[in-house]
Amino acid sequence: MLNLHAQMLSKRQCTFLIGGKLGREVVQMVRHVNNVGTDILVEEPVKPFTAIPGPPWIPVLGTLLPYKIGMKKLTGYHHEVCRLHQKYGPVVREVFGSQTVVHIFDPDDIKAVYDNDGKMPYVPPLQETAQFYRKENNMSPGLGNINGEEWYRLRHAVQQMMLRPREASYYYPIQDEVACRAVDRLEAELDDQGFVRNLDFLIPKWIMESAGMCCFEKSLGCLNGGVDEDLSQKLVETNLKIFQNILQVDQ
Predict the structure, then answer these.
(1) Whole-angstrom Cα distance, residue 197 to residue 187?
(2) Which cofactors are required for activity (predicted)?
(3) Any long-range contacts for 164-173 (C-beta under 8 Å, 24+ apart)?
(4) 176 near 209, Cβ under 8 Å?
(5) Residue-wise pLDDT tens digits, 112-131
């Protein structure tokens, strides 16, 4: 399975393609990107998918061995991705067990991915354990755990209200007010060295406050101190524990 990790091959990277049926589909997709972006159709001899540079890997585990034996931690994977970019360039192939991930770092290439996602893009569930729990208890799986027609139905309903420029402009004033409060809070939290040490808690509280203003048109108090912020802090900590536990299960 090829998982395009916010990524796809653009016209500048079109020499790296996949063989077989999937390869023909990608060729067509790349040619479409070329036709959209320029009048010149690039038809260079294609190289095999294995020609995409990337770190060495072993059968079954791929590049997961250092994580399995404790040499690396998945919590620091974002640093590893930066290292891959520096070492291998704007297109990197990485093997995770039975899956292959193609990392694309160029903004134009990332845009090409989303431009070619289609009407109903497939997105792997972020919380597979939550998906299983909700299914077993006959609960709604939520937008982040579904794909296909059901995803499109929910997404279409939301985007009518919030994602069109005309409708989104309604939220500008209240979002600006929340953003100003968040910036003031960040400045107040600066230490002597100019760092905000608890940024991983402040940002989620900013997000919750912004969401509250959109959904309820009132402040949830996530940035105001006192009891309301204490409650939001507990929610952030609980959510962090959920993702930490999911990370342990995935390992």
Answers:
(1) 12
(2) heme
(3) 171/213, 171/214
(4) no
(5) 988 888 888 888 777 777 77
The yes-or-no verdict on residue 94 having pLDDT over 80 is yes
> For residues 97 and 27, what is the distance between their CA atoms, to the nearest angstrom?
26
Q: How many CB atoms lie within 10 A of CB 204?
A: 18
CB 121 within 8 A of CB 129: no
Q: In angstroms, rounded to a whole number, what is the distance separating the alpha carbons of residues 239 and 243?
A: 6
d(CA 3, CA 25): 14
State how far the Cα of 204 lies from the Cα of 199, in Å rounded to an integer: 9
Which is it for the CA torsion 206, 79, 107, 127, positive or negative? Answer: negative
Beta pairing partners, 62? 58, 96
33, amino acid identity = V
Task: Enumerate residues 6+ apart whose C-beta is below 8 A from 131.
Answer: 125, 141, 145
Residues with Cβ within 8 Å of 159's Cβ and at least 6 positions away in sequence, in order, are none
What are 8-41's pLDDT values in tens digits? Answer: 333 333 333 333 333 333 433 443 444 444 444 5
Burial of residue 103 (CB within 10 Å: 0-12, 13-18, 19+) is buried
| Structural tokens at position 8 | 């796809």
CA distance 28 to 230: 53
Amino acid at 236: V
By residue count, the chain amounts to 251
What DSSP state is assigned to residue 218? S
